[in-house]
Amino acid sequence: MEVALQVQDITVRYGGFTALDQIRLELARHTTLGLVGESGSGKSTLARVIAGLITPDEGQLLLGAEPLGKKRSKAQHKQIQMIFQNPDSSLNPRHTVRQILAEALLFHRIVERSQVERRSKELLSRVQLDAKSLDRYPHEFSGGQRQRIAIARALSVEPSLLIADEPTSALDVSVQRSVLELFHTLQAELNLTMLFISHDLGVIHAVSDTVAVMRQGQLVEVNSKDEFFVRPQHEYSRELLSAVPKMPQY
Amino acid sequence: MTIQPVLELEELTLAAPSTEILVNSISFSLERGESLGLVGESGSGKSLTLRAILGLLPRGVEQTGGVVRSKVSSAMVFQDPRGALDPLCPVVKQLTEVVYYRQRTSLKAARRIALELLERLGLPASLKTKDRYPGQLSGGQCQRVVIALALACKPGILLCDEPTTALDVTVQRQIIDTITSLQQELGFAMVFVTHNLAIAANLCSRLVVMKQGRIIEQGETHSLLRHPAEAYTQMLMDSVLPLPELEGGGVSWK
């Protein structure tokens, strides 16, 4: 299996606090790695290191065969895109959807200027939004629709790795479900390689091929989804899994 | 002999001055020691209903119809524990104050009762010698302090507004176990608001399903979940994402 991303002994310290402790992880192409852990376990820090938003103190990242240095090139930035928990703060409120998508498409020269409109409409239909949405502002949409716009923006530059950091945690349960279904469709249609972060084990089960568990800055377990949810290796994983409230079975 | 309910809501209607109706003619009752789950998505009016029971409606929202009848006092546990505590006052001092005013004891006795409560809720014994500010405690510990504050009022009804939504899953489990055992011990009734039907199903004997300010369905938990009459209830049930059974089993929920 081809490796899309290698995380090699990444360490991040904030003052005396070790946020990430020698993380070693591989992400296979066209698969989704679900990263779980409680708050403060270092999930988001790891995502930010991979996205290039935090420079690690030690260790290195390889995207394919290419090392990702301290200063990344524009092309390297393009390769890794991120979807954040809260679409309200990740979309510019003063830009229309047209501007939001066009900016990304033109900056990374994905299409010619004359093709921007057509491509933007394609992207919206990918995330199941109406083409009429182009001239509206983020606040005119519901939370779930805004997250769809954020997904369209991330996909617009054709990244080789998509990082989703708790993309459904701020949404209502019914909306969460429809956004998860969208991720499913996109995985199948676009063959995405994805790092999907969530504290919700139900969500992780729904989207992942492989599951990685973090605790206090360390990687506790990496396992295939089918193994992890039935036979977790680590005691902590078992503790997490048995704490999830379940519906009674009839 | 019929059991007297400790709380009755009759056609309660809440509205904002723009004449927008937020909670529309809802009725339910609660018996002594009973746990009632109030479930629905955001905007369904769950939290406003709780606030109406407590008599603490947010500014601009008024009760425009119906009655809330309650024979006993109620106390509330909020979703965000840090927001519910005074960040500038150490926690033992905060709790002592509540005990002092609500139980009308001497200050010395109030402090003793406060420490006992905190110990019972599983907070570190070091608080006895060194008081700490909310910012120096974890989210789960803060929520325990908030529960202690509510219990210090000796409520007949404990109102819980998504008390575990802001917490990690293992902490959520501990808090719910704590609430359950305290309820068995102290016998208060409870209204538990949540959007997570799995928690409500494990904790409550009766469920009320709300959508856009109305009650669309209510009944005994197990019969309601076995035969939901409304598509919305079914949707809430489906939104609890399934997990496969753990081999060797975990510690099961009560």
Automatic annotation (TrEMBL), chain A:
Keywords: ATP-binding, Nucleotide-binding, Transport
Record domain ABC transporter: where: 5-241
InterPro entries linked to this entry: AAA+_ATPase, ABC_transp_ATP-bind, ABC_transporter-like_ATP-bd, ABC_transporter-like_CS, P-loop_NTPase
PANTHER family with a match to the protein in the record: D,D-DIPEPTIDE TRANSPORT ATP-BINDING PROTEIN DDPF-RELATED, TRANSPORT ATP-BINDING PROTEIN
UniProt similarity note: Belongs to the ABC transporter superfamily.
The protein, known as: ABC-type glutathione transport system ATPase component
Source organism of the structure: Paenibacillus silagei
TrEMBL record, chain B:
Predominant cellular place of this UniProt entry's protein: membrane
Entry's localization field: Cell membrane
Keyword Transmembrane helix attributed: no
Membrane-topology descriptor: Peripheral membrane protein
Source organism, top-level taxon: Bacteria
Chain ranges of the ABC transporter domain: 7-237
SMART domains referenced in this protein's UniProt entry, alphabetically: AAA
CDD domains on file: ABC_NikE_OppD_transporters (cd03257)
Keywords associated with the record: ATP-binding, Cell inner membrane, Cell membrane, Membrane, Nucleotide-binding, Translocase, Transport
UniProt family annotation: Belongs to the ABC transporter superfamily.
PANTHER family the record matches: ATPASE AAA-TYPE CORE DOMAIN-CONTAINING PROTEIN (PTHR43297:SF14), OLIGOPEPTIDE TRANSPORT ATP-BINDING PROTEIN APPD (PTHR43297)
Name of the protein this chain belongs to: ABC-type glutathione transport system ATPase component
